[in-house]
Design brief:
This protein is α/β, with parallel strands linked by helices. It has one domain: Aldolase class I (TIM Barrel, Alpha-Beta Barrel). Strand 8, helix 10 and strand 9 form a beta-alpha-beta unit.
Length: 338
């Protein structure tokens, strides 16, 4: 294991004032988002969309790395440069989503398991050769009446730990992402308990599978009320409870924690991260790794039309700046409209 390389990559991913751009939507997810914005879907449209994001000027100062889809890692900037080389040239680390998506976990109604371990060792070698220096694996934990079960949490944690060990052998920093879904009417307390159980099991599995924590990044969901909850916790409470939960479960050896936005609004995603970073004494850098909360607004501005390209880049640049401020605890609601 090349610990020097892993530690160097992991530290750079959570460099002060920067976060990750999640642009690893599958062709299927892109098709849905494009349809919502009336954009015709094709491989070239997806390439053009990603080029629009990657060539936005604020990338250099606010984005440490980009999570790419397999298709994008093999695509090129319109000037002929492979995207991975282009990103490296502006000081942004290329990363790759390697899981194969979720399916129903057998004999566990309503619960999901993530596929993708088969052949992963071979794929990792290729991804390293293509320039990827970190990877992502997303597991999904659903809150419902009698779920998640301990079996679902364990099965997902075990798969993530096996993936993480494979990444590190290949010189690639694993992002482990156990997403506790926002869907449901549950309270913030219920989300806290489920997130705590999930993270406890995950870190036990990482230990059992010899994953080197100093070369690992956690991508967490926030501790937050369910989307349809009657009484929603305040932004300050989401920040405080999320940090409380992480402090209980995440070893200080970890170089950093990044967050997904999970369907929260642009403003909530920035405000919640900001609340966490206003607290003093956090053991790790806490930053963003958003997809929707960084660039869904830009997609809707772009609409697939050349005449909207600059305006869409401006919308994306704004979200980059807002979340960069939030990663330092310096975001304000006033900054959104300034
Ligand atoms: P969202 O920020 O849209 O939740 O996406 C982040 C991500 O990478 C999910 O795996």
């Amino acid at each position: 294991m090349n610990k020097t390389l892993l530690a160097q990559t992991a530290r750079a991913m959570v460099a002060p004032g920067k976060g990750l751009l999640a642009a690893d939507e599958s062709a299927g997810t892109c098709a849905k988002r494009f349809a919502a914005a009336n954009i015709p879907d094709s491989e070239e449209m997806r390439r053009t969309y990603r080029e629009m994001l990657f060539t936005t000027s604020t990338m250099k100062s606010t984005i440490s790395g980009v999570i790419l889809h397999d298709e994008t890692l093999r695509q090129k900037h319109s000037n002929g440069t492979p995207f991975a080389d282009y990103l490296n040239s502006i000081g942004v680390i290329p990363g790759i989503k390697v899981d194969a998506g979720t399916r129903e976990l057998a004999a566990a109604p309503g619960e999901l398991i993530t596929d993708g371990l088969d052949g992963l060792q071979k794929r990792m070698k290729e991804y390293f050769a293509l320039g990827a220096r970190f990877a992502k694996w997303r597991s999904v934990i659903t809150i419902g009446e009698s779920i998640p079960t301990a079996r679902c949490i364990w099965a997902n944690a075990h798969a993530m730990a096996r993936y993480a060990a494979i990444c590190q052998e290949a010189g690639i920093v694993p992002i482990v992402e156990p997403e506790v879904l926002l869907d449901g009417e549950h309270s913030i307390d219920r989300c806290f308990d489920v997130t705590e159980a999930t993270l406890r099991t995950l870190f036990a599995q990482l230990g059992d599978n010899h994953v080197w924590l100093e070369g690992t990044i956690l991508k967490a969901s926030m501790v937050i009320s369910g989307k349809d909850a009657k009484n929603r916790a305040s932004q300050a409470e989401v920040g405080a409870r999320t940090v409380e939960c992480l402090k209980r479960t995440v070893p200080a050896a970890l170089p950093g924690v990044v967050f997904l936005s999970g369907g929260q609004s642009d403003i909530d995603s920035a405000a919640h991260l900001n609340e966490m970073n206003k607290l003093s004494g956090n053991p790790w850098p806490l930053t963003f790794s958003y997809s929707r909360a960084l660039h869904f607004t830009a997609l809707k501005v772009w609409k697939g039309k050349a005449e909207n390209y600059k305006a869409a880049q401006a919308a994306f640049a704004h979200r980059c700046k807002m979340n960069s401020l939030a990663s330092k605890g310096k975001w304000t609601a006033a900054a959104e409209t300034a």
